[in-house]
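Allow me, if you will, to draw on your knowledge of protein folds for a short while. I have a record of one protein: its chain in single-letter code and its fold written as discrete structure tokens. Kindly check, if you would, that the fold set down in the tokens agrees with what the sequence suggests. Thank you for your consideration; the sequence and its tokens are set out here:
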Amino acid sequence: MTPSTPGPRRTPARGRRAFAATWWGQAWVTALEDSTLDAGRLSRGRTYARQGMVGPTTIALGKVEAAVRGSRPRPYRSAVHLPVLTDAQWDTLLDTIAARAGHLAALLDGEMTAELVDDARHAGVPLLPQPTELDPECSCPDWGYPCKHAAALCYAIASTIDADPFVVFALRGLGREEVLARLRARRTAAQAASTPPAAAGLPAVGAYAAWAALAEHTPPLPELPEPAPHTAALPAAPPPGTGLSTADLERLMTDTAVRAARLLTGDTTSLHLTQREDAARIAATDCGLEWFHRLVQNTGGEPTAFVRLTRAWRYGSPTGITVAEQPHTPDPAAMTAARSALTEALIEMTTTPVALRAWRNRLTLTGHGIQVRLGLDTRWYPYLQDDHGGWWPAAPPDSNPVTALTSVWQQTAR
């Protein structure tokens, strides 16, 4: 339970609370310790964290992960997932922050006020995690919930949450820059509402929707070819200091034309992309090494994670990125049927028994570095594991889990 008023930062206590110095960091530790009755595994996790056995952490939307050394030479890949907020919940939370200037000021100062958490909770939005929400995952054979490696990761990340409360927002589904951008948009909208209305156009989504409604009663457009690369000379060079070259602008113009042509065919995918997703879309078009490095830098991402995101786009567009980053709990019947089909197929494919491990929407071939994931589009996305324990999109998805499996089976067999 959070305190009614925010206390000052405190020196970490000894024992279990030594990993968090702030009340919101301690709330994270409390959620971990209240999530299990296995005090032994928690004790081992605290020991691992103190001994520095948790490698560099990667914070993604809805999860934190790291390599954790255990009793074996090769470290395990551990992760802890936290349910991301829905769009409606994010709107409520951002409205709550925008309603009181002190909330945002405290966050920018590295503090999370108890009033913000209380206001969000009263509005029906969970910001700090509850014990039932932490969902650990680890490549180790220990079926503890959490295992000592995932527990160590939870303890180790507490100090990061101490220093930057925006980490909690990222674990709930939106990173710092996206949160601040949406808050700025709210402030701009509020300022515009207080000034006399001026002539304005429609947002792209609204304009397209209006056109689509009209198009239902008009003859269809002829099939349009893909726009050719821009060849006419630009009327002026890019302004100095922008970092853009003429070639950059020409590439952006061609990309805009291609997206516009696809909108005319009914493909509205590009209207709903986040900055990271749009960057991955551009990178997936073989934009060149220089552009790729710029995209990594401007999105603030880690290069390996961005490469994985780009590959996920190539194989599945926005749905592929969702499959890569956000595990979900599908219909149990669909998972049971897929597991039975894969088991039968594996009997014919190999003489050695292969164990199938199920976790949420993922089926993993233990010891083979192969995994298939069920997307929200009911297609199965094949993944392969690298030498460091990371999972990579490996082939296009398929509605049949056996077809998805066999598309990467030969890669591992070779």
Notes: Strands lie at 58-60, 63-68, 76-81, 135-138, 356-359, 362-365, 370-374, 380-385, 391-393. The two ends are 54 Å apart (CA to CA). Residues 1-16 have pLDDT under 50 and may be disordered. The longest helix spans residues 303-325.
